[in-house]
Amino acid sequence: MEQVTERTGSLNWSSGKLFRRRLSRYWREQWRVWRTVLDWTVCLYIVLPALWIGGGMYVELWNEPASWMNQIPLWTIRLPALLIINLGILRTFAEEADVLFLLQKPDWRKGLILRGISYTAVGRGLIIAVLYALMLPFLIIIHKLSWMSVAEMIIVTWLWAIIGSLCRNLLDGRYRGWRRMVWKAAASALLSASYVIPIFLFAPQGIHMVWQPAVGLLLIVGLIPQKLRARDTFESDVQQEHRARLASTELLLSQVIERKPRIKMNKPIILRSSKRLFQSFDPATMLAENTIKTFLRRLSLIRIWLSFFGISTMAMLLSPLWVKVLLLILLPLLVSRWVQSLCDNFVHEPFIEQFQWADLVRKQMAEKVRFWLVIPVAVVLGLAAGLQMFGVWGIAAGAAAGLYWWKANEIMSDILMLKSRKKGTV
Fold first, then answer.
1. pLDDT digit string, tens, across residues 361-417
2. For a FRET experiment, which of 11, 15, 285, 321 has its CA 20 to 30 Å from that of 34?
3. Tally of CB atoms within 10 A around 91
4. For 93, left (φ over 0), alpha (ψ -120 to 50), or beta?
5. What's the CA gap between 413 and 80, in Å, rounded?
6. What is the Cα–Cα distance from 319 to 72, expressed in whole angstroms?
7. Running DSSP on this structure, what letter comes out for residue 277?
8. Per-domain residue ranges of the chain
9. Angle at the Cα of 148 (from 147 to 151), degrees rounded to 5?
10. Are 324 and 385 in contact (CB under 8 A)?
């Protein structure tokens, strides 16, 4: 009998019942987390006094507004509203196990997503209502706005918050890595501009035009079907739900547990695939190639190289003629000394060092690396000095600087090799 009841009961499941069960479980989990810190002593000595004092200050703002409030312009109300618009997430209540059955039931999946959108809209609406309720004295008493104008501001902010949640959810599922960051930044800028600019252009006194909420509704109507049809957002939905469930726990334990650094395994921006840079397969060339790849794949080293590049070029442009010649000789040598230290560090890496590289191989490797990493600096410095002094004919100075560095690099290799032999290093 129990088995029959259990089987018949399982047939009564629907997307609405699944959503209600997950929603109730979520709030039970949050209540258990907050109950560990919100005992009766905290409520008695912290929460209740804070509500009493805050309520008294709020009533006082209605009766006797502070004089400093008159100095605050109306547009400042947009700043906290923009935070709500650009920081909210779309709650879908997706779970890892849904890949086994929920994705096979399109009606259930769509029903869960629609209820998640409704839940997100209600949550965003409550937060926005609290925000504007706190700023009502500023809007009504100080700037003399009507209640209808305040209601219009709340509606527009609420619509744009929903649009932001939908856009970020779709972008999180569609893009990865730096592309996701770029697209989300662009969407955030466009969303903020479409929210603020119409207010300054058409409604400077805080009164919104009728077309702005209409446009917001049309955007929402267009974004919801895209979310329902999207097949690439499931993993990001699960990750966002996991972070949402643990948000309260992380907040309460943020000052208790020491946070360990997270190891990221992202592909580099430059040389994402291991392709050859040189055609030769001799040991020195192979070692030089891996050294250059290591340099190009580390953003911190590229940042230092570009900083020295910019400072050297600026110094060259601001110096007189005789100083330009001196800088053109010395600055490439300074850069090459830094590159030489990079070569030494790479050769002494535990994995690389075990091959016991010969002195000649290390000399040829360092010479190749110094040549290719320093010659752009030498040529650009020569071009900067030559074009500034001789115009178009100064292009020849760039070629001369390249030839100079070619010979100086060879001489530097012989000097470093001689020093290495005197020290008795292998």
1. 788 888 888 888 888 888 888 888 888 777 777 788 888 888 888 888 778 776 766
2. 15
3. 23
4. left
5. 60
6. 49
7. S
8. 13-251, 283-423
9. 90
10. yes
